Amino acid sequence: MSDVATLITREAVIAETSGETVGARRRQPRRPTEESPTIRWTLIGVAVALLVVFLLLPLVAVFAEALRRGLDPVIDALTDPDGLAAIKLTLLVAAISVPANLVFGVAAAWAVAKYEFKGKAFLITLIDLPFSVSPVVAGLVYVLLYSTSHGWFGPVLNGLGLQVIFAVPGIVLATIFVTFPFVARELIPLMEEQGTTDEEAALSLGAGGFRTFWMVTLPNVKWALLYGVLLCNARAMGEFGAVSVVSGHIRGLTNTMPLHVEILYNEYEFVAAFAVASVLALLALVTLGLKSLLEWRYGDELAAGRRH
Amino acid sequence: MHLDIRQIAKDFGDTAALHGVDLSVASGELVALLGPSGSGKTTLLRIIAGLDFPTRGQVLFGGTDASLKSVQERNVGFVFQHYALFRHMTVADNIAFGLRARPRARRPSEADIGRRVETLLELVQLGGYGKRYPAQLSGGQRQRIALARALAIEPQVLLLDEPFGALDAKVRKELRRWLRDLHDRTGHTTLFVTHDQEEALDLADRVVVMSNGRIEQVGVPEDIYDRPATPFVFDFIGEASRIPVQVKAGVPHLGGRAVPLPADVKRPADGPAILYVRPEHVTLAADGHGLGGTVASLHRSGSSRRLSIRLDGTDALVEAIAPYDGEAPPVGGRTALRFHSPGLFAA
Predict the structure, then answer these.
(1) How many Å lie between the alpha carbon of B67 and the closest alpha carbon of chain A?
(2) pLDDT bracket for residue B50 (50, 70, 90)
(3) What is the ipTM of this complex?
(4) Residue B226: which residues within 8 A CB-CB, separation 6 or more?
(5) Residue A38, domain extent
(6) DSSP type of residue B105
(7) Percentage of chain A lying above the pLDDT 70 cut
(8) How do residues B109-130 score in pLDDT, each as one tens digit?
(9) A116, A157: one domain
(10) B169: Cα separation from own chain's centroid
């Protein structure tokens, strides 16, 4: 036993001395969680290559294709009545569905985070449903419910002069469905973490429910709320599947920008298609920029509720 | 404003957090609710504040029933363990919050609010901190601001839930003395919850010891420490040796010999019982009159020496304290003990 110990010690000493005398090839001490340079650079290289191929290149391609024949065809495509109508419709749909989901998201997060009630787990699952259901299915469900000819409520609503499917209300409904979870998912973890102590403090100081909500609850979640709204907006403007099913693709009437891009592309109007696509991409980039700005400026406050 | 709590019970589903608690707090008194976690002390405080509602029972403020009043109507100052300051507001806005939330008829002018905020900042010794944000303050400073905010609404009762629980030991002690001074100056009827016995005994006029949703004992700190009313209080507060005895005709017997007790000790019915005695209430009798025993161990403990003594005729060990420079028997040596303020409870 002691012989082995001596042997090991002696070998260690030899190793130590020889390392010292040769002087070279002494291994740099490395933190246990660090990888060797080879592995490190390979992984970084793979990640960068994938990013370039799958994200950066397509983005560049959109703008390159759009500007291939100069600026004039782009301006033509965007000032074309159908193109303008598509841009307007997309902005209109976002302008309706984002505030609607803002109100819904705050209400749902408030209920889930601040109260205990039966069926809470079910409500959270329900909020997540639009994330797991294919947008096409979502669109079909609305057709099934509101179609003028064979929907459950369609004939009645049509009798009242309200057309839902193949019209703006249907597009708004489908968009609201798809963007349902964004604000709520952003707020729920943050509000749950914050608990109800601040609200209790406000109430004990004599503030009413509305004042407490407006002065205490809302300011506590404002950055997460803004973040959720940005994500919601990005998806609302870009949604294709659900909207495609309910819109009917009526040019100048029910075509949103994503649908318009597809139609133009199918008609071999590549420059126009990419011109509209580049506007969509620009809107997305602005959203991303705002999101990054928020993260950079208010990172600490966002960290608690971040999941994307 | 005096406070009466009558038969307050609280059930959370099937489990009872409070079983019919009665308590009276005199106007201007500083009372500690002391107990381990799960003893119901915080629940009781929240029920008094109106942040929770009891299953049964009444809360009376100054003799009038407040049981059905909302937290806003009760006008209590509540201080939370983790401060609960509004982080997006300045210190001054935090303190002014309660005044600005008042209905217009009772709301002071902005100038008056500003003056009141200044006065309160001076009171909590943070004059000039009004423009800072809570994140720029230390824990102790935040808790003082939270107290100023609670005092701003001129509360009838001040309620503090583990007010020093989130602070480190040194700040905790400073704030304790400071809160006592502040209470002596402002005279608010104050209840505070703590699980720290030293804090409760040091700070409060009276201590309410709670366990498992019941009040074990209410008394001035001396009573709580020197004359515990129940085995729980003996165990929970300070230290105590437990000696199993047999009570015969009201007299405890140990290994067949009677244990002499002071006359004021309550005697349980005949049968097995436990004798509780604190180390500092054990005297080593130099004259040899008392319970005989052998020193089992001896060690230094700060400024004094601790002895464990095995009593004759039993395995029970009794802890005792000998002064550092005084006479003490060596390990294995014989000694005799006399008990002051022991407790005797049926086993």
Answers:
(1) 15
(2) very high
(3) 0.85
(4) B281, B341
(5) 1-66
(6) G
(7) 87
(8) 999 999 999 999 999 999 999 9
(9) yes
(10) 17
